[in-house]
Structure formats: structure tokens, C-alpha cells
Design brief:
- With 316 residues, this protein is an alpha/beta fold.
- It folds into two domains: 160 residues, 3-Layer(aba) Sandwich (D-Maltodextrin-Binding Protein, domain 2); 103 residues, 3-Layer(aba) Sandwich (D-Maltodextrin-Binding Protein, domain 2).
- It contains eleven helices and ten strands.
- Strands 1, 2, 3, 4, 5, 6, 7, 8, 9 and 10 form a ten-stranded mixed beta sheet that branches.
- Helix 4 packs across helix 11.
- The longest helix is centred in the last third of the chain and has 21 residues.
């Protein structure tokens, strides 16, 4: 009896420690490899494994329709699963609206906002467009002649292009925007000269900018990005600013206790030195926000995005 009691006591203590049985998570990146969501999911995978928060983290890519195909699959197949996570963000908010998605972020369990990132506007190194002023002039002369390569319709890239046009006095509905499901595909089109300008998260272009293959015209945030030699759009004469952000959500139908455990793991991840080093390396800004504060901010962002999309003619 004593042996049984001691065994039971040890098992209970191990369970309470929160470290004896690390959760094996599966993270869905609802986009093709190479894009921001994929990068975020794989950064989480690496950090969670290196810090011991999880022994094994699997990343699954489900691309299409600005993340709404992956979102629908996640909602339908992961209900009640406390090991399933989904990376999403500002792009998904817009895509849900523009694609009239039957599922939304109300159908998952939001956990936290993780990062913020400037949207970068780039052209091939051999482009005749040298500055933002050159781009504005070409856009005003013939909006259709400027093709913009970016992420899914209605996302941060598309919104940035629409707001850019509107701000300089061009009808945003005339923007020639070409949506790609993954950052790798968009990058190939830009480098190949198939489009005029590329627009995406700075981290997706950074290596090509540093290699001299892309010219960075401007970044979209209010402030310059540390270590990056490029003006903000406002400094370049286009009076607008926008910051992309990414989040992590859990499955629908999990218990309050399961949500608390996942939230605790994410908190440990974002406060780790390895995560901080990852942010610095990739040029991501720490915008961590969790709990009720994140829920309120998410509702605010959804309402604001809806208004912007209506303003630039992407939704009615």
C-alpha cells in the first residue's frame, strides 16, 4: 500500500509541475512554405523544442484563400484538441471578409498576438523605379501599368497597396494587385521581373535586399526599422502607416483549463531568450498581447479592417 501511495503521489506531483509531460503540439500554418505564417510557425516550432516546452512540434501547411481554407480545416478537424495550434493574423482578418468565409476567428480560441512587422515595398534591383516618388509618378500616370505582387487578397499587402493608391490620389479599385498564396511564389515573380513592385513583410524580402537583388523603397510602419536603410512611407511623402501582426490560436471547444495551459506555454515561449533572439534576427517586433486584452484588441482590429476594406472597394 505504501508503494502504491508513493507512486500515486509522485504521479500527481509530476502532473502539477507542468514540465514532466510536455505537450506535443501541431501548428498549422495556413499558407504555403516561405511566407510569414510559415516562418512564424517554424520559429515557434524551433523555440518550443529548444526551450523544452514541447518535445515534438509538427508544422502543417494548408495554403489557400488568405488562410481561410486552413482555418476551415482547423475548425472542422481540431475541435476539442488541446495540442492543435493555428498561426494567423491581420491577413486572415481581411481574407475572411473578402472571401465571405463561412468560418471566422470567432470559431477558434484566440491565445495571443505574437509579433508585429513592417510591410516592405520593393522592386527588382534593375528596376527603373529608384524611389517612392518614382513609383507614385508611374502609378498616377497609369494605375494599371503598376502590378503589385503580394499575399492573399484582402490581406495586409493588398490593404497597403490600396491605401497607398488612395493616399496619393489614385482610385484604389484600379490597383493591379496580383495575389500569391505563398511568399516564395511572390518573390520569384518579383525577382523574375514579372511584376512591377513587391509588397510583403520585411522578413520575407530581407535576405534578397541584403544580397542586392531587391531595392527596398520604403517600410510601412510609423518608425524606421532598426538596422534597415529605408524611409517610412510618411518620410517618403505618402502619408500612411500600417503594421502587420501575427497571432496564435487554439482549437475550438477546448476547456478553460486547457486554454490556460496553452496560454502558459506561449507565455513561456515569448519570454524566453531564444524567442527574443529570433525576433531580433528576423526583424519582428514583440507585440505580445494575451487574455482579455487581446480579445478586445482583436475585435477592434476586425472592425477597423472591415472599414478599410470597404473604403478601398474590396468589400461592400
Amino acid at each position: 500500500m505504501r508503494k502504491l501511495f508513493l507512486a500515486a503521489a509522485f504521479t500527481a506531483a509530476a502532473g502539477l509541475s507542468g514540465t514532466a509531460f510536455a505537450t506535443d503540439y501541431t501548428i498549422m500554418a495556413p499558407a504555403a512554405p516561405g511566407g510569414g505564417w510559415d516562418q512564424t510557425a517554424r520559429a515557434m516550432q524551433s523555440v518550443m523544442q529548444e526551450t523544452g516546452l514541447s518535445k515534438k512540434v509538427q508544422v502543417v501547411n494548408v495554403p489557400g484563400a488568405g488562410g481561410t481554407i486552413g482555418l476551415a480545416q482547423f475548425v472542422n478537424q481540431s475541435k476539442g484538441n488541446p495540442t492543435a495550434l493555428l498561426v494567423g493574423g491581420y491577413v486572415m482578418v481581411g481574407a475572411i471578409l473578402t472571401n465571405n468565409s463561412p468560418v471566422s476567428l470567432a470559431d477558434v480560441t484566440p491565445i495571443a498576438r505574437l509579433t508585429g512587422e513592417s510591410v516592405a515595398i520593393v522592386v527588382p534591383a534593375n528596376s527603373p523605379i529608384k524611389t517612392v516618388a518614382d513609383l507614385v509618378a508611374k502609378l498616377k500616370a497609369d494605375p494599371g501599368s503598376v502590378s503589385w505582387a503580394g499575399g492573399s487578397a484582402g490581406g495586409a499587402d493588398h490593404i497597403t497597396a490600396g491605401l497607398f493608391a488612395k493616399t496619393v490620389g489614385v482610385d484604389p479599385t484600379k490597383v493591379n494587385y496580383i495575389a500569391f498564396s505563398g511568399g516564395g511564389e511572390a518573390l520569384a515573380a518579383i525577382l523574375g521581373g514579372q511584376v512591377t513592385v513587391g509588397i510583403s513583410g520585411l522578413s520575407e524580402f530581407r535576405s534578397q535586399i541584403e544580397a542586392g537583388k531587391l531595392r527596398l523603397l520604403a517600410v510601412s510602419t510609423d518608425k524606421r526599422v532598426p538596422g534597415v536603410d529605408a524611409p517610412t512611407l510618411r518620410e517618403a511623402g505618402v502619408d500612411m502607416a500600417l503594421e502587420n501582426w501575427r497571432m496564435v490560436a487554439a482549437a475550438p471547444g477546448i476547456t478553460a483549463e486547457q486554454k490556460a495551459a496553452i496560454s502558459a506555454d506561449i507565455h513561456k515561449m515569448v519570454t524566453s531568450d531564444i524567442w527574443k533572439e529570433t525576433l531580433a534576427t528576423r526583424g519582428w517586433v514583440d507585440t505580445y498581447l494575451a487574455g482579455e486584452a487581446f480579445d478586445k484588441q482583436l475585435a477592434t482590429d476586425i472592425a477597423a479592417t472591415s472599414a478599410i476594406l470597404k473604403e478601398i472597394g474590396l468589400v461592400k
